[in-house]
Amino acid sequence: MPAESKRVHRLRAETPVGHDDVLEGLWNAARRGRLPHALLFGGPEGIGKFLAAEFFVRGLACEGGIGPPCGRCGPCKRLLSGNYGDLHLLDIHALGKNEIRICYMTLRTDDASKKEMDGNPEDNVDTFLSLRAAEADWRIVLIRDADRMNSQAQNALLKNLEEPGERTLLVLVTSHPDRLLATIHSRCVHVGFEHLSIEECERITREHALSVERAGLLSRWSCGAPGEALELEARSAPALVQAIQDALTGASSPLVAARRAAETEGDFLGATDSARARHRAQVTCELALRVVSDRLRAAVGLGADELAFGAEVAGSPVGVTEESRLRAAVDDLLEARQDVERNMNADGILDRCFLALGRLAPPREPARAQGRNR
Ligand SMILES: [Zn+2]
Questions:
Q1: Which residue ranges form the domains of the chain, and what is each CATH number?
Q2: What is the pLDDT of residue 136?
Q3: Residue 182's pLDDT is what?
């Protein structure tokens, strides 16, 4: 194969925040020769699990000894430049794809697989593990979004989990462990990652150029998941939440607020305008669900400081507080969100979402309502 068609297995140089204890525990096990051969890194989305996995792997290979990587020795440099022979990195999202098919796990030479593998079908987990270690103790396979393996791919991976070679380490990273086969679960040691503190999240998001105010807001909304906070920023969550709040408080009519949401610019995913509009509708429904769920939690007695959207809930005019009606709205919003998967039209989904919100608004008394909003 020509060298340029080779996928690069390169790790990032950033240092993860907030997961020191978990990483130290793993390195400690490795120092004592007790590291399991298969690890499943799980936990909420956007908290830096994969960055932690990268850092962990770098720390295993560093010549300075197992622990935080020095970044300067040969293995450290080669891991960062993609020239380290004992690492196989699979990040399907970075390849611009959604599904991890079997050809990423084992050699497939049919035309479709060759095309999927960019003409480089040997670049799979099995082939990698069949080769001898190039330089280090460990042959390491690192799989991001492991839940994106289809069932064929998961079954193909099982063989390596069942009969791991000497000094083989597989690290699977996922925010949706429920999508993995029970047989995968039973062969991996689970490593749990938690949300960061709001302060840690603020610090990281500010390093990614968020203003102090935005960092505070989005760290709270994401419950301390910096990756998610940055995604919320890219998707104009503050503007969408404003439209949601306006419908909930009666400041705008539901359909006017829905049109404002529909016109909100942001980094929405999809190859076509209608796909991006559906993604925008999905993000909006998700945010509306979170705001209304927090209203419901407040209605059953949780304090504003315990809620991601507590300030929004506490700071707006009280509309409907009946638990049953709030639950009905949550159901409506869940259904609207599902319509995205059913490929329904985005405008219709947004109308439905905002009409559900409007049903929770306080009764309209124009003069008083206006005075209050001023
Ligand atoms: Zn090093």
A1: 3-192 (3.40.50.300), 235-373 (1.20.272)
A2: 65
A3: 96
